Amino acid sequence: MDNQYKIENQNNVIVYCEYEDGKVADVSLELLTKGRKLADKLGVKLEAIVIGDKLEGIENQLYPYGTDVVYKVEDNRLYPYTSNPHAAVLIKLFKMIQPQICLMGATCIGRDLGPRVSSALHSGLTADCTALEIGDHKDPKTGKEYTNLLYQIRPAFGGNIVATIVNPDCRPQMATVREGVMKKEILDPAYKGEVMPLDADFMIDPSEYVVKIIDRHIAKSKINIKGAPIIVAGGYGVGSKEGFDMLFELANVLGAEVGATRAAVDAGFAEHARQIGQTGVTVRPKLYIACGISGQIQHIAGMKESAIIISINSDPEAPINSIADYVITGNYEEIVPKLIKYYKKNSK
Amino acid sequence: MSLNIVVLAKQVPDTRNVGKDAMKEDGTINRAALPAIFNPEDLNALEQALRLKDAHPGSKVTILTMGLPRAAEVIREAMYRGADTGIVLTDRALGGADTLATSYSLAQAIKKMGKIDMMLCGRQAIDGDTAQVGPQVAEKLGLPQVTYAEEIMNIADGKATVRRRIESGVEVVEAPLPLVVTVNGSAPDCRPRNAKRVMQFKYAVSPSEKEKLSDELKALVDKRPGLNLQEWSAAFVEADPEQIGMPGSPTKVKAIENVVFTAKESLCLDNDDEQIENLVKTLLANHTIG
Predict the structure, then answer these.
(1) I need a labelling partner for A320 at 20 to 30 A (CA). Which of B20, B26, B181, B236 fits?
(2) What is the β-pairing status of strands A23-24 and A19-20?
């Protein structure tokens, strides 16, 4: 088995795919979409790995995104996810197939798994990338030149700077990306790859099944910020949980979702699932109404691609105003009821 | 069963409340404008450690921090709240480390500490938000990990029961000791300083801090072993020079850019009924709403 893979499949781009209830996670499909583009640029294959239980037919969800090879490892102890056995599979497989790039979702799973794998392989891992590109690099000290490295672009320092990270000498070049940052796009509904089943007992030593899940309550969040066409978002300036009630009222009338900044979430005004920005969700609605949001970079990065932005702020100098299409200067408590009133009056 | 617990704590610049003066004209960080604080989720981890200490008398909580010598400040802060002692891992050779080189260095220090039952740390630090160091240290020590922990519910028969907060819900897991646990910000806040402990430990100092004390205070610190914090170097923890600092970091920063968003031409309105109604009408007419 070892040799076969070494010859056939080396140096490719691989995406670790997550799934729940038999459905591959959006973030994994987004990464396959990105991975396909990177693989094309490098002239290599796009591979996926799925580890879990009852994986019959799961490859059919992956092929349309341009996946050439799907590695599958099945065992009933591999679902739900625990760290050690999944890490053991990737460490062993990567030693066999030597991928040049590995992408994972910046999810609770990817952020648990990625560091463990990178530590074992001594490969660099960049968390929460917002862009991935292929490019060249010259080491400023040694003058050594590298071609076709993965540029891992990520915000740093609370979002005040954007850093381009490279891993010149270590493979795979590993990166995690948050859900919603990359676009999910089917390449070809009829695209076909091949499945490579890997034996779980061959890949995982029994001693790796060390953490036992004794209880699990998973509820699909009812909050769907990412897919909302209209978002009414509040910042620290909204002042209270009660203040957010008014935003919910406007959202209700407009058929919108309510979002929040990190500061508002930290202050307890809104749930974490509503957080928009680098450490929350990235959104691209057709309308974004920002209430009492000053516009820290880490928030703006997560909503700047909204088609139309309205900023309601009592401070005419609020940084967010510079990227807004409409700026309404005033107190949101007075302006939001007016928006509701005039919407009701004019919409019928 | 008494436990030997290590808590990783990081002194970080407070990036949450970055003002306009946080960046210099040339795009570099104005560190002077950012106060150094105890990484918030490391405080959540400390609270879990102190609860274990409360439940298992005789347990010891040691703070391990890597950074500049002044990081001894976080050890004192932790001692005011209930930690027993601390170690500053500090060395010029450790500078410029990425998460992997940092994890290796911390793991070497933990190995030097001897047998531990649990290592706790915050899920992530606010200056990097990577959440990598906890799992990487676990791997380097060959220990299992439980990340995103909200509560260590129980320790019995050499096993810990931990509740995790993950995106879509809650998981309760059981894992054998020794174990690495990273603690989520949704875990209970850390207890406040205890006034008696502040009095007791305000002169707890590292060797380099002790140097700067008056002779009188030096004598006081000498008399009370509990006031002597430790300072460890890379050589002391037997770190391989190839695996620490910049040389030991597989990731390299190729470029840093200041974030500039392209400003749009904004239409400015006042809090005026007619202007707001016109805006609503425009949005309805182009089918943005309705």
Answers:
(1) B26
(2) antiparallel
CA–CA distances in Å: residue A11 to residues A6, A90, A175? 9, 15, 16
B70 located within any domain: yes
Q: What are all long-range contacts of B25-29, with beta carbons under 8 Å and residues at least 24 apart?
A: B27/A161, B27/B256, B27/B257, B27/B258, B29/A157, B29/A160, B29/A161
User: d(Cα B70, Cα B85) in Å, to the nearest integer?
Assistant: 16
pTM equals 0.87
Residues 6+ apart with CB under 8 A from A206: none
CATH of the domain at B224: 3.40.50.620
Tell me if chain B has a CB within 8 Å of the CB of A100: no
* Interchain contact, A300 vs B261, CB within 8 Å: yes
Chain A positions touching B130 (Cβ under 8 A) are 115, 127-128
Domains and CATH numbers, chain A: 7-208 (3.40.50.620), 230-346 (3.40.50.1220)
Position B284 in a domain: no
The residue-averaged pLDDT of A278-299 equals 90
Q: Where are the alpha helices (DSSP H) in A123-240?
A: 200-203
Note the pLDDT of residue A99: 97
Say what the pLDDT of residue B52 is: 98
- Residue bearing tokens 């320092």: A157
Q: B18 pLDDT band (50/70/90 cuts)?
A: low
Q: Dump pLDDT digits (tens) for A121-142.
A: 999 999 999 899 999 999 988 9
Q: A296 vs B140: CB contact, 8 Å cut-off?
A: no
Inside any domain, residue B280: no
Residue B117 lies in a domain: yes
DSSP-assigned letter for residue A222: S
**Residues whose CB falls within 8 Å of the CB of residue B115, separated by 6 or more in sequence, listed in order:** B4, B178
Instruction: List, in order, residues 6 or more apart from B132 with CB less than 8 Å away.
Output: A111, A114, A115, A118, A125, A127, B99, B100, B103
Name, in order, each residue with C-beta under 8 angstroms of A168's C-beta and a sequence gap of 6 or more: A137, A139, A144, A146, A149, B252
pLDDT in tens, A245-258: 999 999 999 999 99
Please list every residue in chain B whose beta carbon sits closer than 8 Å to the beta carbon of residue A161.
23, 27, 29, 256-259
pLDDT in tens, B171-210: 999 999 999 999 999 899 999 999 999 999 999 999 999 9
> Is A336 in CB contact (< 8 Å) with chain B?
no
* DSSP-derived secondary structure letter, B191: P
Q: How far apart are CA B288 and CA B290, in angstroms?
A: 7
Give chain B's domain count.
Answer: 1
- Number of residues that this document lists for chain A: 348
Structure tokens of B216? 């009188």
Q: How confident is the model at residue A8 (pLDDT cuts 50, 70, 90)?
A: low
Residue B222 banded pLDDT, cuts 50, 70, 90: very high
B-interface mutation test, from A21, A91, A108, A232, most B Cβ less than 10 A away: A108
- What is the residue range of B168's domain? 4-243
CA distances from B121 to A120, A327, B14 (A): 20, 43, 18
The CA-CA-CA angle for residues A231, B263, B277, to 5°, reads: 50
The answer for B 247-286 residues in CB contact with A (under 8 A) is 249-259, 261-264, 266-271, 273, 275-277, 279-281, 283-284
Q: Please, which residues have CB within 8 angstroms of residue A67's CB and are 6 or more apart in sequence?
A: A15, A32, A36, A46, A47, A48, A59, A191, A193
| Nearest-neighbour CA in chain A from B246: distance (Å) | 12
